[in-house]
Structure formats: structure tokens, C-alpha cells
Design brief:
four-stranded mixed beta sheet; mainly alpha; 68% helix
Length: 396
């Protein structure tokens, strides 16, 4: 028992030494913490303002129409739908290609004659679908024209003594089970991704400095000559990195919490619920990822012969880890249950569920906790094995 306590004491001494070294570099710590507090909320504010401006554009649709004098019924219908009709310029095709206009309706000059003869009136819808910013206006215009065609078709049937239900045998009732919070999760998805990314890179600078940096400075050799065992040294460094990473994650989430609670956010029609319950759930979900990320950073950093080489290795690793949530964002089906056991992907899935308003189930959290923890212990043992080799001091 006394030997175990002595080992824990040595681990604590190493961890305290690493923490003191990290906080001694006040400029670097200040940059890390200020970035953690400000960068995420600023990104959130920019996205919310972008969404709000898009909603305003959709609500106040200004539709350029050429030849609207040939279709007075269409003009009356669009005005009833709160659409502002503006004359289309003569060179509207060029303006669409240049991105100056999103969509233009061109009414055929024979529209009135065709309608009077009982034929279909012709409209040309001009747009460039390759432009993302134009897609909402295109879809909204297409929906309005379909509604006008349906309304006019029903009127024609009534004039001929035919009930509209004869050609509309299906009555569709729409039931949307989305809650306001689950709708808002589409926007708050960036919060989950940013929090995940903070856990991955929060201690990266400190990890590289305490491994490859110490090898370059020659300060690793005195540590290895002390009575501290390689596993104790690895555990102490890992513990210090976990504390730093957890601090960065907590500060990052705190910035989001303060922003969503007190900042003057633009109105986008959905509530943003990120209170203490969501904050605590995020911390619990990201805890195993903090353990894994710091252990892997410690191992990869120690394998680098220089800080530059270690940075290159870590960059590749972080890119591979950060691409998993992006793949999940574009998945067209429900996440399989086994995905919770995959590090990073499992944490992102749980974070998304919390943002949708779902409760954090202990069994699911336990499933997402297992694999990252085991991998973290494996990385820690590999780090201790490296520290036991003389090649670490030789830079090979």
C-alpha cells in the first residue's frame, strides 16, 4: 500500500511540475483561453446572423417578372402571397449568370391568348441552381407557381361542373413532430462540432511542448534520471494534459453558455436551449475523449524527433479525427447503435442528441465511454514504453 501511495505521489509531483511549466508561459495560456472563450461564440453569432438574414430574404421575396402584364391573375395571386413583383431587366440572363439575380419569371407573350383558348399558359423560370444562395428563392418561387397552377386548375374544373376532388383523390395531412429545440439543433450542430474539436486540440500545444519540445531543449533527460518510473512519468504528464484540456473545454462551453443566455441574438424563430443541464451533459460526454486525445497527443508528440515533425504528425491525426463528425452530418440515415462505441463519432452522436432535447441515457454514455478509455490506457502504456528506451534521448 505504501509503495502505491509513493507511486501516486510521484505521479502528482510530475503532474504539478507540468502544470506549473504550462501556466508559467502566460502569453500562450492567455491566447489559448481567450481563443476558447471568444472564437466559438463569434462563429455562432456569425452563423445566426446569416440564418436571420436568409429568413428575412425568404420572408420578403422580391420576384423579378418579365411580361407580368400578360398574366394579371398571376400578379394578383403573388400579391396575395406577400410577394413583391419587380420588373425584370432586359439583360436578366446575364445578371443571373453573374449572380446579381437569383431567379426571374418570364411570362410568354401569348399567355393570355392560350389561357382564353383553354390551353396551358407558358411561363419560363430562369435561374442558376449552382449558386447556393439562390436555392431558397428558387424553391420558394417554384412552390408559389405550383400553388397558383393548382388553384387555377381547380377553378377550371368548377367552371366545367367537375368537383376538384375527382382529380385529387388523395388528401394529405402533414404532422411534423419536430420540437422547436430539435429544429434549432440544425444550427446548434456547430456547437457540438466545436466542443468536440476543443476536446481534441485543447492540450495540443502543451503536449508537443512537454514531449518533442523537452527533447529539443534537453530537459527530458534530467526527468528520466530521477527515481520516477517511466509509467509514473507518463501518467503525470498525461494527468497534467487532461487538466489543461478539461479547462479549455470548460471555458469553451462557458463561452457558448454565456452567449446563448445573455447575448443579443438575432431572432431566427427557434429557442436555443443550452443551460446548465446541457453544459453538464457535454462535459460528461467529452470526458472520455479528453482522456483519449491527451494520451494520443502525448504518444505522438514523444515519437517526433522535433517539434516540427510532431506537429506534422498531429495535424494528420487531427484531420482524420475531425472528419468523422462531418461524415455524420451528411449521413441520410439514423446512426447505428454500434457507432456509439467508435471514438469521436460516438461522442458527436451523443452531443447531437443532447442538443435535440433528448435525455442522456447512462447505458449509452457507458458504451461511448468504454473504447476511448481503453485506447487512452493503451496509448499511455505505449508512451511509458517509449520513455523506457534510450533512443528517446538520442532523438531516434
Amino acid at each position: 500500500m505504501s509503495s502505491a501511495r509513493a507511486a501516486l505521489a510521484r505521479v502528482g509531483i510530475v503532474a504539478r511540475k507540468e502544470l506549473v511549466d504550462s501556466f508559467r508561459d502566460r502569453r500562450s495560456m492567455l491566447v489559448i483561453l481567450v481563443t476558447a472563450v471568444a472564437a466559438g461564440p463569434l462563429l455562432l453569432l456569425l452563423v445566426l446572423n446569416l440564418v436571420a438574414s436568409q429568413i428575412d430574404r425568404d420572408r420578403e421575396l422580391k420576384l423579378p417578372v418579365a411580361g407580368i402584364e400578360h398574366a394579371p391573375a398571376l400578379a394578383a395571386f403573388l400579391e396575395r402571397q406577400q410577394v413583391t413583383i419587380v420588373p425584370a431587366p432586359a439583360d436578366f440572363e446575364r445578371k443571373i449568370r453573374d449572380g446579381e439575380l437569383d431567379v426571374v419569371v418570364d411570362v410568354d407573350e401569348d399567355f393570355a391568348a392560350d389561357v382564353a383558348a383553354g390551353r396551358s399558359g407558358k411561363l419560363r423560370l430562369n435561374f442558376d441552381r449552382s449558386r447556393d444562395r439562390a436555392r431558397n428563392a428558387i424553391e420558394q418561387t417554384q412552390g408559389l407557381l405550383r400553388a397558383f397552377a393548382a388553384e387555377w386548375g381547380q377553378g377550371r374544373l368548377l367552371l366545367r361542373g367537375v368537383a376538384p376532388e375527382v382529380v385529387s383523390p388523395l388528401e394529405i395531412e402533414v404532422r411534423d413532430f419536430a420540437t422547436p429545440q430539435s429544429s434549432g439543433a440544425l444550427v446548434l450542430g456547430l456547437l457540438a462540432y466545436y466542443a468536440l474539436f476543443a476536446a481534441l486540440i485543447g492540450a495540443m500545444a502543451a503536449a508537443l511542448d512537454t514531449t518533442a519540445g523537452e527533447r529539443e531543449r534537453g530537459s527530458l533527460e534530467p526527468l528520466l534520471t530521477t527515481p520516477v518510473a517511466p509509467l509514473e512519468l507518463a501518467a503525470g504528464k498525461w494527468l497534467a494534459l487532461c487538466v489543461l484540456d478539461a479547462l479549455v473545454v470548460a471555458v469553451t462551453l462557458g463561452g457558448f453558455y454565456l452567449t446563448l443566455r445573455f447575448a443579443p441574438l438575432p431572432s431566427v424563430g427557434i429557442p436555443f436551449l443550452f443551460g446548465f443541464r446541457q453544459y453538464a451533459a457535454f462535459i460528461a460526454i467529452l470526458a472520455p475523449l479528453i482522456l483519449l486525445a491527451t494520451a494520443v497527443l502525448l504518444y505522438v508528440g514523444l515519437r517526433g524527433r522535433s517539434v516540427k515533425e510532431a506537429q506534422a504528425n498531429v495535424s494528420v491525426l487531427m484531420f482524420a479525427a475531425s472528419i468523422l463528425p462531418v461524415v455524420q452530418m451528411f449521413m441520410r440515415r439514423k446512426d447505428p447503435e454500434w457507432l456509439l462505441s467508435v471514438p469521436v463519432a460516438g461522442q458527436y452522436a451523443l452531443l447531437s442528441r443532447v442538443l435535440r432535447g433528448d435525455a442522456l441515457v447512462f447505458q449509452e454514455w457507458l458504451q461511448a465511454f468504454g473504447a476511448p478509455t481503453l485506447l487512452a490506457l493503451a496509448a499511455l502504456l505505449l508512451t511509458a514504453r517509449l520513455l523506457a528506451k534510450e533512443s528517446v534521448l538520442a532523438g531516434r
